Structures are given as structure tokens and as C-alpha cells.
Amino acid sequence: PNRLVSALKMIMRTGTFTKANIVEELATDIFQNCFSPNFDAAALQASRMMKGTIYSRYYGLEDIYGRMEEAYAKSQEEIEYIRSGKAEADRKEAERLRIGKEAEAEAKGMGYFQKALNWAKSTGSKYSQKFYFNSRQATLDRLILFGLATEKMADWQRVHSGGIYNTVQNGQVIEAAMVITTHNLAQLVDACGGMKDFDFRKAAVSTWTSIISLLESPPTNQLHGVRDIAYMWRQLLFYLSQLEGQEQQLEVAEFMKAEVDRLAKNEAV
User: Fold this and answer.
1) Which residues contact 207 (CB under 8 A, 6 or more apart)?
2) Rounded Cα–Cα distance for residues 187 and 72 (Å)
3) pLDDT value of residue 110
4) Distance separating alpha carbons of residues 213 and 207, to the nearest angstrom
5) What is the C-alpha to C-alpha distance for residues 230 and 251, in angstroms, rounded to an integer?
6) Where residue 142 falls among pLDDT bands split at 50, 70, 90?
7) Long-range pairs for 229-237 at CB < 8 Å and ≥24 separation?
8) Is residue 119 over pLDDT 80?
């Protein structure tokens, strides 16, 4: 909930924590097909923590995380290009060439003038790409995460609407983005120095117990129950990813299997 997110942000500002890119919960009915730079920064932070883990492999994020890191590296090159002053020098050179070509075209006639304008346009577009990134913040283009989340949503749901999304599809894109960013889990752990003293095994066991309890006593609104289980499952995979070594992961997996067997036995009775 955004109230909790706001409280966490306040704690982060007043405490001795490293910077955490905490993201808000988004409303599907007003979603405008893009995310703020904070979401991209959160996704990048998650990629550095989760790449190669159970979480990343389960959700099929290895390629997406790799591409996000490549996009970030490229954006840093672009930002440095702007900060160094080379971008401004190139812009002035492109403008000088454009003015010269237009003057030359006017002297030779309108037919050549149109060709010169086309050349100037292509030259201008070549340099205009250098100014797309905001020089005031070293972060990803805000459309990168939207593109990857949309791609992931389409991969999961096999839907595509030519770029026009209804409320349901907005929710799917937002959910894909939450999976990619881990919805603040990786950010909080990273901000707290890895939380070495936190018992992730206990957290995983507790989460699985809650899932089993919800399956045994489902809520009246089944859609809410499915949503809650999906959220808890995502948290469970995150906790498993934080365990050191396969031995601890297998230990939790054995507990999970035992609980499933118990539930199946009770249902059979």
C-alpha cells in the first residue's frame, strides 16, 4: 500500500540506510503506459541482486535483467556525452551544416532544396538521439521498463493490442513490472546491507504456511485469494533466493512438499 511506501521512504530519508528506490503501487485506471525513472532504477537495482537466482529463473527474467544492465550502461555513455559538452558541439555543427545546405539549396532551386531538407532532417535526427536522456540524473529512460514489462506480459498472457491497453491489460503490465522490480523487496534488503542477520529461511517457511492456510480456507472473493497467493508466492521465491546454498533451499522445499502432501491427504478424507 502507498501509505506503507510513504512511511518507508520517510524512514529511509531519516535513517542511516543506503539509497533505496522504493516504488509506489500504481492504479490501473490512470496508468499512462510508462513508468517514472524511479521504477527503472528499482529494476536495475533488482537485476543486480536477483540475476542468476531462483527468482529470476522462475519468472524468466535472466534475459530482461541482462538487457536492462546493457541499456543502463548505454544511458551512462549518453549522459557523459552530454555532460562533456560534446553533445552541444555536435548540435551546433549539425545546425551549421543544416543552414549551409538550405542556403545552397535555395541558390540551386526548389527541387534540390527538398533534397537538402531531407538530408538536414536525417542529420538532425542522428544528433537529436544524443539529447534524449536527462543529463541531471543517471537513470534509465522511463520507457525501458514499460517496454520490457509489456513484452513480459505479452509472453505470459499472449495478448497484444497494438499499443492500446484497457484496465485489465494495464494491470498485467504493472504486475509484470512489479515482478521485474521485486516490488521493493530487493531494494529494502539492499538498503539494509543485505540483512545478513535476517532469517530468510524462517520467512520462507512462514510464507508457505500462509499460502497453505489460504488454500485450506479460501476467501469469499476468489480473485482476491488468487491475487494474495500470487503475491506471497513471489515473496517466497525472493526469500528462497536469499538463502545461502542449495542445502537450505532443499530443506525448505522438503517442508513445502510435506505441507502439500498433508493438504492433499486432508482433502481426500
Assistant:
1) 232, 235, 236, 239
2) 17
3) 46
4) 10
5) 22
6) very low
7) 232/207, 234/178, 234/179, 234/182, 234/183, 235/185, 235/203, 235/207, 236/204, 236/207, 236/208, 236/211, 237/54, 237/55, 237/58, 237/59
8) no
DSSP state of 141: -
222 burial type by CB count under 10 A (0-12 exposed, 13-18 middle, 19+ buried): exposed
**C-alpha–C-alpha distance, residues 232 and 226, integer Å:** 10
Q: What are phi and psi of 27, to 5 degrees?
A: -90, 130
**In this structure, what C-alpha cell is assigned to residue 22?**
522504493
Q: From the CB of residue 213, how many other CB atoms can be counted at a distance below 10 Å?
A: 12
Predicted local distance difference test score (pLDDT) of residue 51: 92
Q: 126 falls in which pLDDT band (50, 70, 90)?
A: very low
Which three cell numbers, joined as nine digits, stand for 21? 528506490
